[in-house]
Amino acid sequence: PEAAGPVGPHAAYPPAPSDTVSLSAAEPPSDAVAPAPVAAPEGGVSPPTLRLGALPPMPHGAPPAPAGPPVPARAVAVGLLNLSGLGVGYALTRLWWAVALCWLATAGLLVVALPAEPDGVAGGVVAGYLVLLVGAAAHGAYVGLRRPLVWPPRAAVAVVLGVALLAAPGGGYLAYDSARDEATEEMLLDRLAEVDELVSARSGQPFDAAEADYRRALDGYAALADDHPGSRAAKRVPERMRTYYESVGATYGDKDYCAAITPLTFLRTVPKRIDEKHLGKLVNWPDGRLATSLYECGVGGLGTAGSAGDGKDQHLGTLLADFPDSAQAARVEPAVSAAISTAGDGVKGPAPCAATDRLRVLRTQAATLAKAGGAASAALTRDVGTAGGHVRAGTYACGLDQYDDGQFAQAITTMNGFARTYPDDRNRPLAQKVVIAAEVAKKLPAAGKRRPTTDSGGSVTVTVKNDSPNAVEILYTGPVTGKFDLAACAGCTTYASREQARGKACESGRSYPQRTLTLPVGTTYFLHKSKGTGNDAGAATARIEPGYTYTECAYVVSPFGIGPAT
Question: Tell me, what's the pLDDT at 215?
Fold first, then answer.
């Protein structure tokens, strides 16, 4: 129906209420009936507006696009775009909450991963992020299957863009892996510095105190070189090993050869712990130095008791065994021969006992070295014989020197040993005389003021009798020296006092075990030793003069039958 109102060129129409709709000139649907046109009144006045009944309110904004047919290429594109981890596929489909989730996940991964550490990111974190990416790609593909993209207009272009964006995670991985490698290099260089500091701190210290740290340092270098062969730290190990060798073997540079043997021996074991390719010429670095140290220290120990036998100072034997073809090994036998010769000359000097002791050690050392074999064995065996000859002469000279110095107990031991060891030696008889004289001199020191001789006999008769219930050994020395035994006296008893013995011992008219000597004029010293008892020896000094005969009487005094008998 038409709206009522004034008609005219200036007539005003009231505004349409809110529930009226002005229809546009859009093409009507094909099944609609077009309204009859309304002619404009004369004078140019607009026709009245068509007013319809009340309609529902229109929604704000454009309505969602209707779902179209599935587009597989678009689904692939959105999935690929989401694999970048930035949610680009979601952004092109205007799924903003999903974009935010992708960004949060990627940011969280970066917070955990950066800065890069040698051990990288925990496997669980990486696995979780990968699951999220795969989920985002799958979900994005599902969304993109029917949801149009705001850009680009063609799905094929989006696929190409998705493939290109895959370079982002790939490049990020490569950059992170490079950063992690650099962090690993820095960590290894820090380890190298720690090992270097350990070696530097121990440099110059005694090896026995520093050995544990040197071994730890070697393990550190070996771990860097063998476990990380391509690292910058591993490439610096050969240079560090030279410093290591010089530090361990520093005592050799100080010419402390004995102290250098143990560390140099240790250095020879280093190639068993670290590959030789990291050592180069250092593999043989200790050999010549060790051979020199063994020789110098071993020669210094020639004739020293501490280096005899199988003790730790048998360095010359080690030299012959470990470096038989070395120049140092060739010098061993001449050094031994020279030491024996020098000690042999000392037998004739003022200290024959010390020279003899040295010769005994040299003889033992030469015998030990001869068993090591090699070209010097025959010469060393001859050296053993030479040293033995000097020991024989030295033992006799030592016994005489001890007697002359008043060391009577030592002289007895030395000369008894000489007589037993060398029964055919021409000096054996005099050695036995020295033993007798020293026995007497222990009780009567004056008897030892003159060295005994092998002389015998004399012009004065001396009869020695035994008036004791025990057998006795009679020793005498003076112009002549000797000894003999007297059997026990049957029926003889001990005396209660010396005074009683002087009045009754060896009384005339009674038979006693006895022996008659002819002694030279002079002072003779007698020693009576009761055999088979613990009685103290008795001693007497007899001044033998011509024109007399003498009786020497042996008896035993035991005061009141108690106490030690003499």
Answer: 95
